[in-house]
Design a protein that fits this description.
The chain is α+β, with helices and mostly antiparallel strands. The protein is built from 3 helices and 10 strands, in the order ααβββββββββαβ.
C-alpha cells in the first residue's frame, strides 16, 4: 500500500476534489494528489494564512491553519464567472497574492494604476467603480486563470459599499474599506487565495 501524500502539498483545486472524493470513498483521490505535485506554486501550507472567497455566499474568509481568523461580506462580478480578458467576470480557482499596494494610505484613498490619485469620502457620489484604500493583486496559478495578473484582478476597497454582499463588481473582489484595510494588514505577499462557486 502506498504511503498517503500530505494535503499540505496539493493544490487548492486538488484539495477540494480530494475532500469530495474521500467523502465518496473514491480511490481516484490518490491519483489527484499525485498529479498535483506538478503544481507546487499552488501548494497548501496549513501553517500560513490563506483566503477563501465564496461566490455563492458572497463572503471572504481569512484562515490561519484550521482556525478561521475573520469573515467579511464581499462582492464579486455582476457579469458572472469567467476567464476572458475584457469580460469583467470573476475567475475561479487557485491564486496567490503577488503584490500589495496602499501601505499607510488613508482609508478611501483612490488608486489608478495602483498609484494614489485622491481621496474618496462617502458624500462623493459617482457611478465610477473606484479602487479604494488597499489592493491585493492576484496572480492565477492554474491554466484556466493564468491571465488573472494581466486582467488586473484585485481584492480592493470600494466606493459602492452598499453593494457588498451581492455580485456587483467588474471582476475584482470588493470589500468595505475598513475590512479591506484589516485584511491587508493580515495578508502577506504570497498568501494563497481560493475563489469558488
Amino acid at each position: 500500500m502506498k504511503r498517503p501524500i500530505s494535503l499540505r502539498r496539493i493544490s487548492w483545486d486538488c484539495h477540494a476534489k480530494v475532500a469530495s472524493l474521500r467523502q465518496r470513498r473514491t480511490p481516484d483521490a490518490a491519483i489527484i494528489c499525485q498529479s498535483a505535485r506538478s503544481v507546487p506554486k499552488v501548494g497548501v501550507n496549513l501553517s500560513q494564512p490563506r483566503i477563501e472567497v465564496s461566490v455563492g455566499t458572497q463572503s471572504l474568509v481569512l484562515w490561519d491553519g484550521i482556525r478561521q481568523v475573520k469573515r467579511w461580506p464581499c462582492s464579486t462580478s455582476k457579469f458572472g464567472l469567467g476567464y476572458t480578458e475584457g469580460s469583467n467576470k470573476t475567475p475561479l480557482g487557485g491564486f496567490l497574492v503577488r503584490e500589495k499596494h496602499g501601505e499607510g494610505a488613508p482609508a478611501g484613498t483612490i488608486f489608478k494604476s495602483r498609484q494614489p490619485v485622491g481621496l474618496w469620502t462617502p458624500d462623493i457620489v459617482t457611478p465610477d467603480d473606484l479602487i479604494l484604500s488597499r489592493i491585493l493583486w492576484l496572480d492565477g496559478m492554474e491554466k484556466r486563470n493564468a491571465n488573472t495578473w494581466q486582467r488586473y484582478i484585485y481584492i480592493h476597497g470600494t466606493n459602492d459599499e452598499r453593494s457588498i454582499g451581492r455580485p456587483a463588481s467588474h471582476g475584482c473582489i470588493r470589500l468595505k474599506n475598513a475590512a479591506m484595510i484589516e485584511l491587508y494588514e493580515l495578508t502577506p505577499v504570497g498568501t494563497a487565495v481560493w475563489i469558488s462557486e
